[in-house]
Amino acid sequence: MISATKWVPRGYATEFPVKYTMDDDELERLSELAKLKIEEAKNEMEDIEDATQEDVGALEEKTKQDEEIDNDPELKEFGFDTYDDEPDSKLGLEGDGMETDDEDDEDEDKEEDDESGELTLGSKHKIEGKDGEDPYISLPTQEDLDEEREELQILPTDNLILATKTEDEISHLEVYVYDADEANLYVHHDIMLPSFPLCVEWINYNPREQGPGNFAAIGTFEPEIEIWNLDVVDGVYPELILGERDDKDKKKKKTKASKINAERHTDAVLSLSSNPHHVNLLCSGSADTTVKLWDLSNGKAASSFTFHSDKVSAVQWNPVEGTVLLSGGYDKRAIVSDLRSEDKKEWKVDSDIESMNWKPCGTQFLVGTDSGMLYNFDVRNESKPVWTLQAHDSPLSSFDYNKYIDGAIVTSSASTREVKIWRETKKDDKFSLSMVANRDLSCGKVFSVGFNPDQACAGTLCAGGHGGELKVWDMFGTKAVREAFDIKSSNHSNDVIGQAFDDEEEDE
Predict the structure, then answer these.
(1) Could you report the per-residue pLDDT of 343-353, keeping only the tens digit for each?
(2) Which of 247, 282, 283, 289 is nearest to 266 (CA)?
(3) pTM, full prediction
(4) CA distance 101 to 321
(5) DSSP character string of 370-391
(6) What is the DSSP string of 425-464?
């Protein structure tokens, strides 16, 4: 299944991603990480030893019982303890001057080797090829290296799509390349994850070089946040881990939940948002009810906020004001706060908040709830929503508001296979909404949807869900959508693009 997706705008990925290499700096960094892992392993071993004390005691008791049986005088007379010690000669397997089959085979093998002069396993002859090279090792040619480099190439016109995927209890981040011109989608590389992923965010910041970069932040059921370099293929360890627990907290991992900690999360990370104005700032919402502000330049939590009384399921930075944050949670409240001060505004909704997002103007935002409702609020009016929409009859798992096509909204539900396209219109200060199209994208129950962030492909969206396959669809390939949003060009395909076997899936 695919639990979360995120587009990466064009032009940010390195054209030729590099293979992971172990240099001196990387070795030093991994050594520090290894020390932490060793301490964690020691703590886990202590827990295992404590848990197995009862098993050891039971084994000792069984051994004692076996000894009592062996020393029983009534059983000794039957000679059970020497039953398996009968000599082989009594069974007719060996005699004087007789050789075993194994000895015959060894002699025959030795004779064959002596006659042929060929090398056999176990021989100490030195194997050498021409010029002292090992004939069993073939190094890649320059042509092979060029071909591999070309396969890794990412063009400036390509989008990346990040998808967190879990299959057979193994989780990883898949990095897709989407070529709109060729309508092509494929997995470029993937990254193994330590736990089930819940959210993913793209970050235009390099924590090591403290400049522009192409990175991904991953939130899982673990309280830590991993930061991975998307321009490195076959990476082993994340570039940065936010909120690593100390030894004491790690030892309490399987016990009752820890109390709120100002420096790190103590429960699953449910949501992430990268600041578009201050790219070194990352915000996270957690099941521990807190919102954390992280400074990626030092890997520390700059601030911790307790706006909510229950799990914080969604956070989003304002697209216009770099210090204003929108957050929502299972306490059924949407809160807008300026993190420079204690000022905040809040709105109540009918059920748990599943997703939220700002409109491009920065003064209005949308909230999706567990009841399938979609709310539109204005930060200048706390009394009531601008409008409400019963978008789905089941939890509204994900939605997106298009920043280039005014009034275009896509929604999805975790209980249905369809995505819906809505049109928001305004006349005489009154808003109305109408469903323009709905479509099954053949990705199972849909958990995540999102519009392409580039204006050239503004009508393209991606979706992922229970089926485990990422799908891409240009909604302008549908005539009703083109007419609704007054799109003149008809040069759009209505096909749903997947990694492979799209035609067969549609036929089914």
Answers:
(1) 899 999 999 99
(2) 289
(3) 0.77
(4) 86
(5) TTSEEEEEETTB-SS-SEEEE-
(6) EEETTEEEEEEEEEEE-SSSSEEEEEE-SSGGGTTEEEEE
